[in-house]
């Protein structure tokens, strides 16, 4: 069993056992730190961000987590709280865009199942992934795609860093580090 397999399994167990939003966010932040090397500071500064608009239409809210152009809303019971989550991401997206900021996508999650939405006027679900039903490589690639890949055309160096020797994905697929040539 690879180190990434173990980290994903530990994360899924922690996310399932977390009974609060804060607990789910802590489990998620620990996963980001262990797999991607994200510092606590990078995560903490993006948790529970208060956003608001001014003018005639006054909107406000507190996003659970925002990383780059992605909003993440954590829910205790996704089946019961999904509609509320969609209303929240619609409101946050409207606020951020009115303030001149970009939002690429939004995730609503209970920590195990991640639902990806794009928001125009209403939230439209475009993808769902359950970390218990996919390989660790797929879970890591999902997180990397939506949280860390940025919004630019990848260069050869970007692709090498993400998929080449020494990358988490390469090591997970190939196994123990060794020369391929």
Mean pLDDT figure: 80
Give the helix/strand class: alpha+beta
**What would you call the shape?**
globular
Please mark out the parts with pLDDT under 50 across 5 or more consecutive residues, or reply none.
176-181
Strands side by side in the biggest sheet: 1-2-3-4-5-6
Query: In total, how many beta strands?
Result: 6
Give a quick account of the main beta sheet: strands, pairing sense, barrel closure: 6 strands, mixed
Instruction: Give the number of helices.
Output: 7
Percent of residues in helices: 40-55%
Compressed to H and E, one letter per element, the order equals HHHEEEHEEEHHH
Report how far the terminal alpha carbons are from each other: 24 Å
Rg calculated over all Cα atoms: 17 Å
Give a short synopsis of this structure.
The chain is of the alpha+beta class and 181 residues long. It is built from seven helices and six strands; from the N terminus they run H-H-H-E-E-E-H-E-E-E-H-H-H.
Task: Please explain how this structure is put together.
With 181 residues, this protein is of the alpha+beta class. It has one domain. The protein is 47% helix and 22% strand. It is built from 7 helices and 6 strands; from the N terminus they run αααβββαβββααα. It has helices at residues 3-17, 21-36, 40-44, 78-98, 136-148, 156-163, 168-174, and strands at 47-52, 60-67, 70-74, 105-109, 113-119, 123-130. It has a 6-stranded mixed beta sheet with strand order 1-2-3-4-5-6. Strand 2 and strand 3 (70-74) form a beta hairpin. Helix 1 (3-17) packs across helix 5 and helix 5 runs antiparallel to helix 7 (168-174). It is globular and about 45 Å long. The two termini are 24 Å apart. Residues 176-181 have low confidence and may be disordered.
